[in-house]
Design a protein that fits this description.
The chain has helices at 2-20, 28-55. It is mostly helical and 60 residues long. The protein starts with a helix and ends in a 5-residue tail after the last helix.
Length: 60
């Protein structure tokens, strides 16, 4: 559930940036690409944290 929440937040912030922020001045393909990279990064981070929690240690 945490991963879904993080991905939703990334999508919401990207949409907000397109509508209101400086991302609106960048090409749409660039904005979507950067948003996808951030989403993948957060997904990998969440997976590593989840696996570390399953072992009873923190993933470093």
């Amino acid at each position: 559930m945490g991963v879904r929440l993080m991905l939703f937040l990334v999508a919401a912030l990207l949409l907000l940036g397109v509508v209101l922020g400086t991302v609106a001045h960048a090409p749409l393909t660039f904005s979507v690409t950067v948003g996808a990279v951030i989403a993948v990064w957060l997904g990998v981070f969440a997976l590593r944290e989840h696996r570390g929690r399953d072992r009873g240690t923190s993933a470093h």
